[in-house]
Amino acid sequence: MGYGIRLYVWGDRACFTRPEMKAERVSYDVMTPSAARGILEAIHWKPAIRWVVDRIHVLNEIAFDSVRRNEVENKISASQVKSAMNGRDIVLNQASSEERQQRMTVMLRDVAYVIEAHFEMTSSAGETDNPEKHYSIFSRRARNGQFYHQPYFGCREFPVHFELLEDGQPLPASYYAQTPERDLQWMLWDLEYGQDITPKFFRATMREGVIEVPDLHKREVRS
C-alpha cells in the first residue's frame, strides 16, 4: 500500500447516476468509488500514480431531491464541427424549441463524506517519480484548495468543497455512526479500461457509516 490520505468533501447537491436508469437520472444513495477517485485526480494526478479508494465515510443523512428540467435531446456532432472548420457550408446552431424534452433528476442533497485512499506507483513512473514526491504535491494542493479542474459530485453542476484531514485529526461525526449495517445493493465500482471499457460492480454495505471498498481483483467485484 502506498501513502494514504483522508479527504473531507462536502456540497449542496450530488448525483451519482445509476447506469441501469436510461431515460432519467437517478442517483445512488452514496458516492461511488469512481466518483471519489475522480475528486482525487482533480486535485493531483500523473501517469506515474494510480489512486485506490479504500473506504468512504458517509457523514450526513441520505436525503433526496427531485427536479424536472427542459433539456435538448441532441448535440452538435464533432464531425459537423470539423467539416465547418474545413470550410464546408454547415449550420451548427440548434433550435432548442424544436428539440426540447423534459427529464427528471433524482439527486442527493446536503452531502458530506470522508474519502480514505492511497496511491500506487505505475509502470509509467520515471526516475524522478517517488511516493514522497507525489504525496507532498497532493497534500500541499489539498491544503491550499488547489485543483487542476473543479472536482464535482457526479455531475459538473455540483461542485465539491474539500479539506485535507491531517494525521491525528479526528473524523467529523457521522449520522450513521450507530447504524450497525445497511445494505446499499449493487454499486458501480469503477470502469476497467483495456481493449474494451468494462464496468465493475460490488455489493456495497455501510457499517456504522463506513463503506469498505473492495479490490478490483477480489471476487466481490463483478463485471
Task: Describe this structure as you would to a colleague.
16% of the residues lie in helices and 39% in strands. It has helices spanning 33-43, 78-85, 96-99, 131-143, and strands at 4-14, 25-26, 49-58, 64-72, 100-121, 161-164, 182-193, 197-207, 210-212, 221-222. Strands 1, 2, 3, 4, 5, 6, 7, 8, 9 and 10 form a ten-stranded mixed beta sheet that branches. A hairpin with a 3-residue loop joins strand 7 and strand 8 (197-207). The radius of gyration is 20 Å and the shape is globular. The model has no long low-confidence stretch (mean pLDDT 89).
Q: Which strand-content bin applies to the residues? A: 35-45%
Poorly predicted residue ranges: none
Question: In CATH, what is the class of the domain at 4-66 and 99-177?
Answer: Alpha Beta
Global Rg: 20 Å
Tertiary shape: globular
Number of strands: 10
Largest sheet: 10 strands, mixed
What is the terminal separation in angstroms?
Answer: 24 Å
Helix content: 10-25%
